[in-house]
Design goal:
It is found in: Cytoplasm. Part of the signal recognition particle protein translocation system, which is composed of SRP and FtsY. By secondary structure, the chain is α/β, with parallel strands linked by helices. The protein contains eleven helices and eight strands. An eight-stranded mixed β-sheet has the order 3-2-4-1-5-6-7-8, with helices on both faces. Helix 1 (3-14) runs antiparallel to helix 2, helix 4 packs across helix 11 (286-294) and helix 5 (112-126) runs parallel beside helix 6 (141-154). The longest helix has 17 residues, at 24-40. Bound molecules: guanosine-5'-diphosphate.
Amino acid sequence: MFENLSDKLDRAFKVLKGQGTITEINVAETMKEIRKALLDADVNYKTAKAFTDDVRQKALGNNVLTSISPGQLLTKLMNDELTSLMGGTTADLNFPATPTVILIAGLNGAGKTTFTGKLANYLKTQRNKKPLLVADDIYRPAAIDQLEVLGQQIGIPVYANRESKDPVAIAREGIAQAKQNGQNVVIIDTAGRLAIDEAMMVEIEQVKDAVKPHEILFVVDSMTGQDAVNTAKVFNDRLDFTGVVLTKLDGDTRGGAALSIKSVVNKPIKFIGTGEKMEALDVFHPDRMASRILG
Ligand code: GDP
């Protein structure tokens, strides 16, 4: 995860690390290198520029130049700024009602159905919840099959209605079943498309309006870089989601999405997917991710 970015940041810092004295010019040059490393990692231009300008200003303002170990101070500053760029603190899910309704949105292939299973498994094994999964993709029978297989694998019930072509009705039926059976979290896996599509957006808006979910999690493939951020923006404008799930961080993703999404849509990353298995899910901690990136 982010090896390339870590290497590049490390190289950019080499000049400063361990030096007894550094100059304003050193700092400016290092920030230029850092900005390049961020852009190479697919961080969007505005974010990268704002970030390095900020670090530079703080570095100069915090007397980094006159401190005993300027390299160390700058590393700490970078760590703090990266953490804040990714949202600062860990953003937990909210469970304000019984059942709590969580709507899952995103494009096809992003990892929605896999995440739906992973989230249910996490809530059951680590948060002591009783989830129900709802298969709300009326276009792909295979998507229902996939969710049922996952449900069996993790021992969590799945509500599906293969006869119905009405996603709003299916979502409502799922919630009614959860109430009847005492399940306290309902996770609704919705239909995606290969690209942003008006019909898909209208459909998911209708489901949102009907069931008033407490959480709307937008799932996006981190490997798609700046596209991930652009897609997030469109979904957020329509759905005003409550959190982001970044999938496939186990691959050789360059990291740009993790670093840009919060500042572009101002919604926290809540989870990261780190593999295909049901256990491959982590709660997102901005501070840990920052330390990881800085190595
Ligand atoms: P959906 O169309 O959005 O429901 O996407 P799926 O859940 O079917 O996932 C698409 C593909 O991505 C599947 O092959 C998943 O196994 C894979 N996948 C999902 N999440 C992850 C992840 O975090 N890491 C990796 N390596 N693969 C993932």
